[in-house]
């Protein structure tokens, strides 16, 4: 894992989200968990070597942020937004999160196949959140403060974790640094407002949900990308393009690849981004 500051560690080079942890004088706080089993176990062991895991914070409900909870049952508490808890490992028509995690094993974590739980074992106790919030909250663990901020946009229950003592914010999927942004269930106006909120934090490092550790300058890049996406679909609708024409003519394929291990999903991401935005922007205007 990358050591971002003296006490902050993050993993940015494996398939899935960027999980991380903060070492305090009274144990460890984990932010999200690796999707891949061998990495989840390795990260848990690294945390436990530095002290008890006081909190595991899940920043959203997408599988790459929560699947590894199964391997972190030594955590004293799992904290998440109520919306994340309500959607934890929910099977949707477009994706079964358990199957999605399993499909990655042969290519991305073959050594983890023997410890990958079967479906019944997993759902019997996936290590769901037990501390639920509906807005901001603050945790004090040892000599560190954790401002858990509600930053809706990518998902409505999205959280960021600001650690002032380390001048770091774990931004989760509010920031995709140098890779395609997933807009499936997004609320772009809320997302932009959340980026502006993060811009006001006094930090040196932004740990994105995907991509390399970066700075606050990337928040402006992410905001511009979201605005470009929304504007491009709005203009296409004004020209009378169909949803299928928007998918076919979309120019964002050339901007970024999809994050590590998901490169083959580029067309899938583009199509679902277009469909989500097209449906919202073509809906009748409210009086």
Word description of this protein:
It is a single chain. The protein has 287 residues and is α/β, with parallel strands linked by helices. It has two domains: 2-216, Ribonuclease Z/Hydroxyacylglutathione hydrolase-like (Metallo-beta-lactamase, Chain A, 4-Layer Sandwich); 225-281. It has ten helices and twelve strands. It has helices at residues 37-48, 63-66, 82-86, 97-103, 105-108, 119-124, 188-199, 217-238, 243-249, 266-281, and strands spanning 2-3, 8-10, 20-24, 27-31, 53-57, 77-81, 131-133, 137-141, 144-150, 159-163, 168-176, 205-210. The strands form two sheets. The chain has a seven-stranded mixed sheet. It has a five-stranded mixed sheet with strand order 8-9-10-11-12, with helices on one face. β9 and β10 form a beta hairpin. α7 runs antiparallel to α8 (217-238) and α8 packs across α10 (266-281). The longest helix has 22 residues, at 217-238. It is globular and about 60 Å long. The model has no long low-confidence stretch (mean pLDDT 95).
Summarize the structure.
The chain is α/β, with parallel strands linked by helices and 287 residues long. It has ten helices and twelve strands.
Instruction: Give the CATH level 1 class of the largest domain.
Output: Alpha Beta
Low-confidence stretches: none
Tell me the count of domains: 2
How many β-strands, per DSSP? 12
CATH architecture descriptor of the largest domain: 4-Layer Sandwich
Give helix and strand order, one letter per element, not per position: EEEEHEHEHHHHEEEEEHEHHH
How far apart, in Å, are the first and last alpha carbons? 52 Å
Q: Give the overall form.
A: globular
| Global structural class | alpha/beta
* Main sheet: strands, sense, barrel: 7 strands, mixed
CATH-defined topology of the largest domain: Metallo-beta-lactamase, Chain A
For the record, what is the CATH homologous superfamily label of the largest domain?
A: Ribonuclease Z/Hydroxyacylglutathione hydrolase-like
Q: Helix segment count?
A: 10
């Amino acid at each position: 894992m990358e050591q971002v500051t003296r006490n902050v560690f993050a993993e940015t080079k494996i398939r899935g989200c960027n999980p991380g942890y903060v070492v305090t004088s009274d144990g460890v706080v984990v932010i999200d968990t690796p999707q891949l089993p061998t990495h989840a176990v390795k990260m848990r062991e690294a945390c436990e070597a530095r002290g008890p895991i006081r909190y595991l914070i899940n920043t959203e409900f997408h599988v790459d942020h929560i699947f590894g909870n199964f391997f972190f049952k030594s955590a004293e508490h799992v904290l998440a937004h109520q919306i994340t808890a309500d959607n934890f490992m929910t099977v949707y028509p477009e994706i079964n999160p358990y199957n999605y995690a399993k499909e990655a094993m042969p290519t991305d974590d073959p050594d983890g196949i023997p410890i990958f739980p079967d479906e019944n074992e997993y759902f019997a106790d996936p290590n769901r959140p037990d501390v639920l919030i509906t807005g901001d909250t603050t945790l004090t663990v040892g000599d560190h403060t954790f401002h858990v901020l509600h930053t809706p946009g990518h998902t409505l229950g999205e959280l960021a974790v600001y650690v002032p003592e380390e001048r770091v914010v774990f931004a989760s999927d509010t920031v995709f640094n140098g890779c395609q942004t997933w807009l499936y269930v997004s609320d772009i106006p809320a997302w932009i407002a959340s980026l502006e909120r993060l811009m006001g934090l006094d930090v040196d490092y932004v740990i994105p949900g995907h991509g390399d550790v970066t700075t606050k300058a990337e928040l402006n890049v992410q905001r511009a990308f979201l605005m470009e996406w929304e504007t491009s679909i709005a203009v296409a609708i004004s020209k009378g393009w169909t949803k299928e024409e928007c998918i076919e003519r979309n120019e964002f394929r050339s901007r970024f690849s999809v994050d590590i291990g998901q490169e083959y999903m580029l067309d899938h991401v583009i199509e679902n981004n277009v469909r989500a935005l097209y449906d919202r922007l073509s809906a009748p205007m409210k009086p």
